[in-house]
Each structure stands twice: as C-alpha cells, then as structure tokens.
Design brief:
The chain has 151 residues and is an alpha+beta fold. It has helices at residues 11-19, 29-36, 85-99, 114-122; strands spanning 2-5, 43-51, 55-65, 68-76, 104-110, 126-135, 140-148. Strands 1-2-3-4-5-7-6 form a seven-stranded mixed sheet, sandwiched between helices. Strand 6 (126-135) and strand 7 (140-148) form a beta hairpin.
C-alpha cells in the first residue's frame, strides 16, 4: 500500500468512498478540491491510501493553523476496513503534521463511532471534551479528542 498526497484525479473515488460510509461527512467536491489546492486557507494536508490491486481505498484530510491541527476526516472503503489502512493514514498524517511543527492535533468523532474512537485511542488521542448535538443527520453528540505531538 502507498500513502500519497491527494490529487484532483482522486476526488471522484474519495467521494465514492465517503458516500458509502455512514459516519463520513458529506462534503461537496469543491471542499476536497480546495483541500488540495496550494495556497488555500486554512492550510491543509490531504492524503490517500492506494493499493496496487484495488486502487484508492482510503483518505484523510487535516487542516492546520500553527501550532495546532484538526483531523477533519478520515475514511476507508468498507471492504478494506479493519485492515490497518486507517491506522496508517492517521500515522502518516500525524507524521507530516509533526514535521511541519504542529504540536497538537484535535478531532471530533461521533459518540456512537466506537471503531474510530478505538483507533484514535490506540494512536494516543485522549478524550478532552464533548459537544452536545454537534452532528446532524442523524443528530448526535461529538467526543472531542486530542493528541500532543511535541512541545
């Protein structure tokens, strides 16, 4: 598997993966295109995971304003979940952010999304807060988690 920067040609497949994930945000194409456009604000990194036989199987997007970053979304194709792809995307995202001088990564996750919460906890994220009724469709609370990358 290869993890690389997202390109415009990847956006159709990223949208397809996201549309098949109950927990993923329903971003418009323009949001992903903005995420990969140099000079966009806020600054973002967008990565994809690609397998030689299956093609693109996952993605991650994080925004950052020094010294903090927010993991905005991460998704893995349903057929490839629980195979370590999400963990590798998260690790690579955090590695790049740390290299940019980011010291803290935050995220929000649906309270019911146990698999994601376990992934984040295994990666060192701690629960730092709660947002009532943060998500819509369906309405649900968010758990706020954060990870300290460096001092």
């Amino acid at each position: 598997m290869t993890i690389r920067p997202m390109q415009t040609s990847d956006v159709d497949r990223v949208l397809e993966i996201a549309d098949n994930l109950a927990q993923a945000p329903r971003w418009a194409r323009e949001v992903y295109e903005t995420a990969i456009r140099p000079g966009s604000a806020p600054r973002r990194i967008a990565l994809v995971a690609e397998e030689s036989t299956l093609g693109l199987v996952g993605f991650a997007v994080a925004s950052f304003v020094m010294p903090e970053a927010e993991l905005e979304t991460i998704g893995v194709a349903v057929a490839r979940q629980r195979s370590g792809i999400g963990r590798q995307l998260l690790w690579e995202t955090n590695r790049i952010l740390g290299g940019l001088g980011i010291t803290k990564v935050i995220l929000e996750v649906r309270e019911s999304n146990r698999a994601a919460r376990q992934l984040y906890k295994a990666a060192g994220f701690d629960k730092t807060g709660h947002r009532a009724s943060y998500y819509v469709d369906p309405k649900e609370d968010a758990i706020i988690m954060s990870l300290k990358l460096a001092d």
